[in-house]
Design brief:
Number of helices: 16
Structural class: alpha/beta
Shape: globular
Largest sheet: 8 strands, mixed
Number of strands: 15
Strand content: 15-25%
Strand order of the largest sheet: 8-7-10-11-12-13-15-14
Radius of gyration: 22 Å
Helix content: 40-55%
Length: 401
């Protein structure tokens, strides 16, 4: 299989090279961070004026690099002061006090540093404390729909969209294939690796069965308003007692590992963010489906909402759940500079009641920001009489807003 370049990410990385800025690639394991780094390595290696120092902490040959002193020794041994040095370190969170080494090498002339990691708190806290704003975090997501088509050599049609909805966008599926059993086994392997390395071991979690039950609960309730207290009450009804504070911590750890994304509620009229009752979406809808036991009847709307959320993030929006006095807006999306859009997610708008639910809440917002309904209803893109744009999911995923 030929190497496929995810050009938008490569362009982002290239923009910050040569600017004394540490580049930090973050995201869930197996979404492609390592591949991005290897592409940069191969590009720079072609120039004899460059020296590449590449450390992959998932390979046995680098097991001896455990601390920042070990890291200093390895880099010092391979550093060439007469060339431009590219220091590339994959899964750097596995090196104790790595930030001390990174800080010292950041000031070396003719040196660029790119690191990857799968833990949001550890990377952001340690780097921001020791080097301030001299780093750029680039969030790598699982494949977009357009990338999915390219990776799997598919044409854009309803059948391809159905495969994306079912299997999601882990890049490794391009090698595994989209046969149900093989794909689900691969997705669950990735999920268990993330859970073990980035949640259980890193946070010394002892109640692993509850953690797994919690993730299944969140998969079953994707896109629903949830609080730690409501989860605690539900679990108690199932014969499992656990405090709300512990649930809050577990969810926090899952979000740190990029398995989950928490979306806060936003009071549209009061213009404030609520501190309770959030929604949760999965980084990859294929993993979500594997955890939930497949795409069951009644799940399709949840999965579509998950896909729409991820694509809104991909388009650069900060996303909230919109709260109205008499209803809810699935997504309130903002960008710096005051840009805002409202989005309702739906599966099929088959009757007047569904249409009123999806369009009616948008009509009740009395401002001039763009408003959208995104669904799989067969249609030509058009505006209704109140200026609400109805988009087909495929058009949204291929062309954006």
């Amino acid at each position: 299989m030929a190497t496929i370049i995810r050009q938008s990410y490569i362009d982002k990385i290239e923009r910050y090279l040569g600017k004394e800025t540490i580049i930090v690639l973050v995201g869930q394991r197996r979404v492609g961070k390592s591949c991005m780094m290897k592409m940069i390595r191969d590009r720079k290696k072609a120039d004899d004026c460059n020296n590449i120092i590449f450390i992959d902490k998932e390979k046995r040959e680098f097991d001896n690099i455990q601390t920042y002193q070990d890291l200093n020794d390895y880099i010092g041994e391979h550093f060439q002061s007469d060339k431009h040095n590219y220091i590339l370190i994959d899964e750097i969170q596995d090196i104790r006090e790595f930030e001390r080494s990174i800080r010292s090498y950041r000031t070396e002339p003719n040196t660029d540093i790119i690191i990857t990691g799968s833990n949001a708190r550890m990377l952001s806290n340690e780097l921001s404390t020791l080097i301030g704003g001299r780093y750029k975090e680039i969030y790598i997501q699982s494949l977009s729909y357009n990338e999915f088509l390219e990776f799997h050599q598919l044409s854009d049609n309803d059948e391809a969209l159905a495969l994306y909805i079912q299997y999601g966008g882990l890049p490794g599926l391009a090698k595994i294939g989209l046969e149900e059993d093989d794909a689900r086994e691969y997705q669950m392997d990735i999920y268990h690796t993330v859970l073990l390395k980035d949640v259980i071991m890193r946070n010394q979690i002892r109640n692993v069965p509850f953690l797994e039950n919690l993730v299944r609960f969140l998969a079953d309730n994707t896109g629903k308003l949830i609080s730690a207290n409501s989860i605690s009450k539900y679990m108690k009804s199932q014969g499992e007692s656990i405090a709300s504070a512990a649930i809050t911590n577990y969810i926090f750890f899952l979000c740190e590992a990029y398995i989950l994304h928490k979306v806060n509620r936003y009071d549209i009229h009061g213009k404030r963010i609520f501190e309770t009752n959030d929604k949760f979406y999965f980084e990859d809808n294929g993993i979500r489906n594997a955890i939930a036991g497949g795409t069951r009847e009644g799940d399709i709307e949840k999965v579509i909402e998950n896909i729409i959320y991820q694509n809104l993030i991909r388009l650069g929006y900060q996303v909230y759940v919109g709260q109205l006095q008499a209803g809810e807006i699935d997504f309130v999306c903002t960008k710096p500079g005051g840009e805002r859009i409202y989005v309702q997610a739906s599966y099929i708008i088959a009757d007047d009641a569904t249409r009123e639910r999806e369009f009616g809440n948008l009509r009740s917002i009395k401002d001039n920001y763009p408003k959208y309904v995104i669904s799989m209803t067969p249609l030509l893109t058009k505006n209704d009489n109140d200026g609400i744009t109805h988009l087909h999911l495929r058009k949204f995923l291929t062309e954006g807003i």
